[in-house]
Amino acid sequence: MMPFKICGLSTPESVDAAIAAGATWLGFIIFPPSSRHVDPPQLPSLLTRVPAGIGKVAVLVDADDALIDAVLAAGIDTLQLHGNETAARIAAVKARTGRAVWRAAGVATRAEITQAAQGAGPADLLLLDAKAPSRSPLPGGNGLSFDWRLLADAPPGRAFGLAGGLDAGNVGEAIRLARPAMVDVSSGVEEAAGVKSLSRIAAFAEAVRAAS
Questions:
Q1: Tens of pLDDT, residue by residue, the chain (212 residues)
Q2: One-character DSSP codes across 91-155
Q3: Is 36 helix (H, G, I), strand (E, B) or coil?
Q4: Exposure letters 40-65 (e unless 16+ CB within 10 A, then b)
């Protein structure tokens, strides 16, 4: 089955629903402008619900070492960097923490896909998301997608995940066209901004299974 991540979790109920749906990773956004933001002190009560074998990912935007240390101390095992981090910063975070590091990047063109792959440095996974609108304070989670045919025609040359505008209705087509290593959903399983729908989480998982 295609591995998948349910991102933007912030309540015990949504964590439990993602676990029940068979998510490979659970994502927690540590970025105050987001409606899905979780303060690091809130993380332990959510992470203790997660059984062994399911990844726990912190989504960070230009985080300093102190914030990274705080989320790792809370129980996070994977760091997703979704800001303006350079390849050198990614390498430094990996070397200092010894944890898996993902590089998330917003793209809209072939050139941006190539640039994202080159700028990911030693990241364990390149997560390609839709480029955020200039008016948005959020680098991702805007419910937008990019043209997945760009990946079918010119994949980035390394393992990549796919995010941006995915939901139960289109994830099958996205998997078929882009052939990613994993898929990532946040707004596509919500009933309102930051409010996860337990039924939509289940439906997304079922659609991934059907397409795998």
A1: 999 999 999 999 999 999 999 999 999 999 999 999 999 999 999 999 999 999 999 999 999 999 999 999 999 999 999 999 999 999 999 999 999 999 999 999 999 999 999 999 999 999 999 997 777 767 777 778 999 999 987 788 899 999 999 999 999 999 999 999 999 999 999 999 999 999 999 999 999 999 98
A2: HHHHHHH-SEEEEEEEESSHHHHHHHHHHTTT-SEEEEEEPPPTT-S-SS-SS----THHHHHS-
A3: coil
A4: beebeebbeebeeebbbbbbbbebee
Structure tokens at 157: 């040359």
Closest C-alpha among 156, 77, 90 to residue 123:
90
Helix (H, G, I), strand (E, B) or coil at 160: strand
64/9 Cα distance (integer angstroms): 22
- For residue 16, the Cα-to-chain-centroid distance in whole angstroms is 18
CA terminus-to-terminus distance, the chain:
5
Amino acid of residue 74: A
d(CA 139, CA 84): 10
What residues contact residue 195 under an 8 Å CB cut-off, 6+ apart? none
Q: Please name which of 24, 77, 121, 120 lies closest in space to residue 129, comparing C-alpha atoms.
A: 120
Q: How many CA atoms lie within 13 A of 23 on its CB side?
A: 31
Are 130 and 119 in contact by the 8 Å Cβ rule? The answer is: no
